[in-house]
């Protein structure tokens, strides 16, 4: 046991030496004024090794040192990702994962099915909106948060997951075993607005690698149904993958810049639109929950005059993160650039003001922002 512990601490010393070397390389010319800080790092490790009351795994200290380095940046968008979090982020970017295909939420303190997605194990098993998931693999979901529940239902493709379902009007709980499959959650949904037989309504919930292709398909379907104007909704869309935002924006711009990416190190880059574009009246719905990739879209449409923004000022996230893989399945999400709108506006911590400002009260029955958007599209069609 003693030899094993010494070996672990020996590896920790080697790793921390590498960390110190990396920090030295990072601070470069400021080494002389910061050497005491580096000495403190080694001193703290020595004190923990020799004086701390409890046994500590050296790997835990290494991970803590890495986390602390990233946290010292004081950047809410840069973070160290453990293996589980990194895997979940990759799934989110890809827009697919191994799961059963249901959207869940907390209702009356119960884990409740919001909706099952079509052609998924959940839908094929007859799970319905409103069903309460009382247990996952015999683990009660009472007081369980949605993130934990979703994590339990996701897993390797082909593996089983047991659900206990409580359904209103059914006395006994329903026990079902589902086989996980690759689930691609749709990020774009659209339909023709009722009583407006030539105005389409499309919601983009997030930007994943699939969003651009999904949008192209939905727009084509709506054009086949006679769409002459469009309301595009990115309210409460927190963003996502940069390439997806570029492809989505390109559908509405004929030519010219979509976004400028401004790096501190390296060559700046401008993404340009390629004709053709959607040539019809467009209104984009935005609010304070529209962020990041959604703001790239909003900035491109506003600066190009391709449509009218309706709603409230956007969130104001004008920086870009790059995700780097690390050892042991971990990752680093690091802010590496900022983005500027086509007219080179820096919107970080400022947001984008709508052309028509309309405040939607939370919980209101009538969507006055959507109503105003439809009215504007109708006026443009009739011109």
UniProtKB/TrEMBL annotation:
PANTHER family from the UniProt entry: CARBOXY-TERMINAL PROCESSING PROTEASE CTPA, TAIL-SPECIFIC PROTEASE
GO BP term, pick one: proteolysis
Residue ranges of domain PDZ in the record: 86-154
Superkingdom field: Bacteria
Matches recorded under Pfam families: CtpB_N-like, PDZ_6, Peptidase_S41
Name this polypeptide is given: S41 family peptidase
Record key words, sorted: Hydrolase, Protease, Serine protease
NCBIfam families (alphabetical): prc
């Amino acid at each position: 046991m003693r030899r094993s512990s010494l070996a672990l601490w020996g590896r920790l010393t080697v790793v921390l030496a590498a960390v110190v070397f990396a920090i030295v390389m990072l601070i470069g010319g400021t080494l002389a004024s910061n050497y005491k800080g580096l000495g403190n790092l080694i001193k703290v490790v020595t004190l923990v090794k020799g004086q701390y009351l409890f046994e500590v795994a050296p790997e835990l200290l290494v991970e803590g040192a890495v986390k602390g380095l990233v946290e010292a940046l004081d950047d809410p968008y840069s973070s160290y990702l453990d293996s589980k979090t990194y895997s979940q982020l990759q799934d989110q970017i890809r827009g697919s994962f191994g799961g059963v295909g249901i959207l869940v939420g907390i209702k009356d303190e119960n884990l409740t099915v919001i909706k099952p997605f079509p052609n998924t194990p959940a839908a094929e098993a007859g799970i319905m909106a409103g069903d309460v998931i009382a247990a996952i693999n015999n683990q009660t979901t009472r007081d369980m948060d949605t993130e934990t529940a979703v994590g339990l239902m996701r897993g390797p493709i082909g593996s089983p997951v047991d659900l206990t379902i409580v359904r209103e009007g059914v006395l006994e709980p329903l026990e079902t075993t589902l086989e996980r499959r690759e689930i691609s959650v749709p990020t774009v949904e659209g339909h023709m607005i009722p009583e407006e037989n030539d105005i389409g309504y499309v919601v983009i919930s997030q930007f994943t690698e699939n969003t651009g292709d999904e949008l192209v398909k939905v727009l084509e379907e709506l054009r086949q149904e006679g769409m002459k104007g469009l309301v595009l909704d990115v309210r409460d869309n927190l963003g996502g993958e940069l390439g997806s935002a570029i492809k989505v924006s390109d559908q509405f711009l004929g030519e010219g810049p979509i976004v400028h990416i401004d790096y501190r190190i390296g060559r700046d880059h401008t993404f340009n639109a390629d004709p053709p574009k959607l040539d019809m009246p467009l209104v984009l719905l935005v609010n304070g929950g529209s962020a990041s990739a959604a703001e790239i879209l909003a900035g491109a449409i506003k600066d190009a005059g391709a449509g009218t923004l309706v709603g409230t000022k956007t969130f104001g996230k004008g920086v870009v993160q790059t995700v780097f893989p690390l050892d042991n399945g971990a990752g680093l999400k690091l802010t590496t650039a900022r983005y500027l709108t086509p007219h080179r506006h820096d919107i970080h911590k400022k947001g984008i003001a709508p052309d028509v400002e309309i405040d939607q009260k939370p919980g209101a029955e009538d969507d006055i922002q959507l109503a105003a958007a439809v009215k504007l599209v109708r006026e443009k069609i009739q011109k």
